[in-house]
Amino acid sequence: MLPYQLVYHERYDLNLGEHVFPSKKFQWLKDRLLRTRFAAPEDFVSPEPATDDDVRLVHDEEWVAKLRSGTLSYQDILRLEIPYSRQMVEGFWLAAGGTILAARLALRDGVGFNIGGGFHHAFPGHGEGFCAVNDIGVAIRALQRDRAIRRAMVVDVDVHHGNGTAGVFANDDSVFTLSIHQENNYPSEKPPSSLDINLPDGIGDADYLHRLGNGYRAALTMFKPELIVYVAGADPFMEDQLGGLSLTFDGLRERDRLVLWTALSHGIPVAIVLAGGYAESVEDTITIHANTAAVAKEVLVSVTDGKRWESVSHPARER
């Protein structure tokens, strides 16, 4: 049995048809984890969809109403870059509920893993870049509302800048946003995160890990979060169709290990969401996400020495 739970719903699929974003990857990842016996059926838990009140913690009433009623304008659809359907809307509400649940499980178990989510391009008043609802923001706001946490950090390693998340938490001292991304890539307008690490085209494993490690450790030194939401995009991979970096499978595993070990060894729980991944072979994207799940298990077991997270001393909680 895994030391943490995997959050998944069969209706995470956004009903996109033939699209560069393979939203069926959520189901394929679950199937891979079961087929390889990394996980058993009892390791999975299904979320409830976020409530409209949850979603409105981040998004404007008008945008929520447009999504619910199917009254998006032509410009809304162009900016979103995915076709509208009731199934798409249901998938985003479930993804937000899944990230809320993963965050709550992280506080209990050290790690919570949403096999979905990471829709970091959604702004309060609109969606863009395949993202209609910013589940990252919704989860953090929901836990703050319920007084489960006060301070959170977003560590976004997707190849694309987390512009929506930066917009959601602009001028908010309770949330630190870190985005490490390819500078010359989507989106064209990048509102400032708390820390942006802008990477040149083609950067490889060693330089990437060096720059991520320096920025991430510096951020944790000055900001003491009670939860990290890790946006573990697969698209810095060297064969990604929408990326221009050159990370290998090994480099991506080391990226995951760096983020997770640094947090968990300091007593900071981590909620993981998947975000992007557009490898020429979808099997490569699935492998990268499966490797993130494996690294999370390895690091959590190492940090807790096989004990339950609740029974281990967590100095971060005492700050």
Task: Report what the structure shows.
It is a single chain. The protein is α/β, with parallel strands linked by helices and 319 residues long. The protein has ten helices and eight strands. Strands 2-1-3-8-7-4-5-6 form an eight-stranded parallel β-sheet. Helix 7 links the parallel strand 4 and strand 5. The chain is globular and about 55 Å long. The protein starts with a strand and ends in a 15-residue tail after the last helix.
What's the overall geometry?
Answer: globular
What class do helices, strands and sheet pairing give? Answer: alpha/beta
The counted number of beta strands is 8
Strand order of the largest sheet: 2-1-3-8-7-4-5-6
Radius of gyration: 18 Å
Q: Low-confidence stretches at least 5 residues in length (pLDDT < 50)? A: none
**What is the subunit organization of this protein?**
single chain
Number of helices: 10
Question: Percent helix among the residues?
Answer: 40-55%
SSE order and pairing:
Layout: E1 5-7, H1 25-35, E2 44-45, H2 52-55, H3 61-69, H4 74-80, H5 86-109, E3 111-114, H6 135-145, E4 152-156, H7 163-168, E5 175-182, E6 195-199, H8 205-222, E7 227-231, H9 249-264, E8 270-273, H10 282-304
Parallel strand pairs: 1-2, 1-3, 3-8, 4-5, 4-7, 5-6, 7-8
Provide key terms for this protein.
globular, single chain, eight-stranded parallel β-sheet, 319 residues, 10 helices, alpha/beta
